[in-house]
Design a protein that fits this description.
single chain; 293 residues; mainly alpha; Ribosomal Protein L15, Chain: K, domain 2; 3-stranded parallel β-sheet; two-stranded parallel sheet; 32% helix; Ribosomal_uL15/eL18
């Protein structure tokens, strides 16, 4: 059965929506012409999805320009680099910081000063902020406060070498706490102990800080390292700083590594020793006066 012209036009429009080749646009006047409409329909390829019939658009792609292949290539002879010169010889031109051969400015006018490799960066924590966190319920004052509680409550951000407790608006702080930090000012220590609290300073390496603040990263545990620098050892041996090594200082010793005992102090000289030293001094003067040359 030969389909009608209306059916053929509807079929042609459907094929165009799917990007397929349509049937001829002849006006059937005879039976043979009508059969010509039907013949291409059986030759149409059917795809499970239109994704299988996607094709590149030629205008979206251009051929790579081949430089140095003669004038007809569009970039022949010098390949667009001009005639001779430094830019053409080197291929990529001079370095980015090249200043024409003269002494570079980073040598003529260098940066002044230096970067201290021993400097440590402590995150400051003031007593007024600590009291605000306690009032908001972000820190529990009934439990010991360590670097983990300060880190989890976001009281400090990005702990590098430790936390130092400072005494800004210390008169507003009115809670007895038990806190452990890396360093603390004398005013902060006095205020906490005045309220009946306890403060301790402890040494941590960067790996130790990561272990305290993020223990889940160390499934096998981690051994906290002690201080090795003389400055750190003396700081944490000093009871005035509430250092955790203050218990290792024996009676009569100083927190300094150059300590001495009270009984090792040199005794005062006796009167006989003082008299003998004077006689020896007078004798040396007489010998010097009687000397001829």
């Amino acid at each position: 059965m030969i389909p009608s012209i209306t059916a053929l036009r509807a079929l042609r429009q459907t094929l165009r929506q799917f990007g397929l080749s349509s049937i001829p646009t002849l006006h059937p006047t005879t039976t043979a012409a009508a059969a010509a409409f039907v013949a291409p329909i059986h030759q149409v390829r059917h795809y499970a999805s239109i994704l299988g019939d996607l094709r590149d658009i030629r205008t979206q792609h251009t051929n790579k320009k081949r430089k140095g292949r003669g004038p007809s290539s569009g970039k022949g002879k010098t390949s667009g680099r001009g005639h001779k010169g430094q830019g053409q010889r080197g291929g990529h031109g001079p370095p980015k910081n090249f200043e024409g051969g003269q002494t570079p400015q980073w040598i003529v006018n260098p940066e002044k000063g230096f970067k201290n490799p021993l400097m440590k960066h402590f995150s400051p924590l003031n007593l007024n902020l600590l009291q605000s966190w306690i009032d908001q319920g972000r820190i529990d004052p009934t439990k010991p406060i360590t670097l983990k509680e300060l880190h989890d409550s976001r009281a400090v951000h990005g702990i590098k070498d430790g936390v130092k407790l400072l005494a800004r608006d210390c008169d507003k702080f009115n809670t007895a706490i038990d806190i452990t930090v890396n360093k603390a000012s004398r005013a902060a220590i006095a205020r906490i102990e005045e309220l009946g609290g306890k403060i301790s300073t402890r040494f941590y390496t960067k790996e130790g800080i990561r272990f305290i603040t993020r223990p889940h990263l160390f499934p096998d545990g981690h051994r906290l390292a002690g201080p090795t620098a003389r400055q750190d050892i003396e700081y944490y041996r000093d009871p005035a700083h509430r250092g955790y090594l203050a218990d290792t200082v024996k009676p009569g010793e100083s927190p300094s590594l150059y300590w001495y005992k009270k009984h090792d102090v040199v005794k005062k000289k006796t009167e006989e020793e003082v008299t003998q030293q004077k006689k020896n001094k007078e004798l040396r003067k007489q010998q010097a006066a009687n000397r001829i040359f």
